[in-house]
Amino acid sequence: MCEEDQTRKLLGIPDSNQDPVVRFRTGARTRAVLATRDGVVHRFQDRQARVAAKLYKGNGNTPGSLGYQHYHNRWFYRIAALTGNGHVQQSVSGGLLEGVGPYAVLQFIPGSELADVLERGGLSTAQVGRVLGDILIKIWIPLWTAGLRFKDCHLGNFVVTPDGDTVMIDTEQMRKDANELLNQPTDWTKRDKHQESGLARLPNFVRRIILAIDTAPPAAALLRHIKVSLDQSGLFDALRRLGREANAEEIAIRAAESFLDELETEWLMQ
User: Fold this and answer.
1) Does 233 score more than 90 pLDDT?
2) CA distance readout (Å), 51 to 44, 189, 221
3) What tens digit of pLDDT does each residue of 45-79 get?
4) Is this structure's pTM higher than 0.85?
5) How would you class 69 by CB atoms within 10 Å of its CB: exposed for 0-12, middle for 13-18, buried for 19 or more?
6) What pLDDT shows up at residue 121?
7) What is the model's pLDDT at position 216?
8) How far apart are CA 96 and CA 171, in angstroms?
């Protein structure tokens, strides 16, 4: 059975429906990612009008594969910061289906991957400011306030929608953090490790976004300034406190706003 037919079976799409899915590029652990076309009826219709199906590699019985399945089918729904955030791709289902293998069904997010948007370039300062604001204030801070962490914040983890919103996809990168949060909430071993990895990537992540502006300053100078601004704004320290201390979210939002304001004043508006 080909992957298109496996997706039909998974989503309950009849054979009479011609060409109901479109294929997207895969990640390291997936063998196929296919999304329903607009208007195609499927068995998860009552939860999401359009969905994307991820078909994972392997037989689905390894601890790693089970972590993906549990995240999408159980853990995601127990964390309000995920289910109640319009800037986070929603999980719909996950599991193991005979003839299909391990899978996840996700909300389909229309738009372009942030990496592709930045590669095209020519963004305005307002567009870049909005992307950074969405990622820091509407995604990063709320999720870390809930006690989650992510280590691999890269451009492929975000989609810019036609309305200009930035949405986090592939949230399964937080599956180990979600497991620790829900089942061992006082143990921060994995989350502390992922926290430092994520923060170490933040300066270059911000730099790559700003470089999509035609008038962006030289990359090396920009990176130095971003690191100084992060330190002066107190954002690094504020992010580390999220999920651990009272009022940490409010402090982190102020620090993020200060960081973004300083970037706009000193660099983005040049």
Assistant:
1) yes
2) 8, 34, 42
3) 999 999 999 999 888 888 888 899 999 999 999 99
4) yes
5) buried
6) 87
7) 82
8) 19
CA 23 to CA 3: how far, in whole Å? 10
SS (H, E, C) 104-146: EEEECCCCEEHHHHHHHCCECHHHHHHHHHHHHHHHHHHHHHC
| Dist. CA 211–CA 155, nearest whole Å | 13
Find, among 159, 47, 169, the residue nearest to 110 by Cα. 159
Q: Which residues contact 244 (CB under 8 A, 6 or more apart)?
A: none
Domains of the chain: 3-107 (3.30.200.20), 112-268 (1.10.510)
Q: What digits encode the pLDDT tens for the residues 167-206?
A: 999 999 999 999 999 999 999 999 999 999 999 999 999 9
89 near 165, Cβ under 8 Å?
A: no
Measured over the CA atoms of residue 64, residue 69, residue 74 and residue 79, the dihedral's sign is: positive
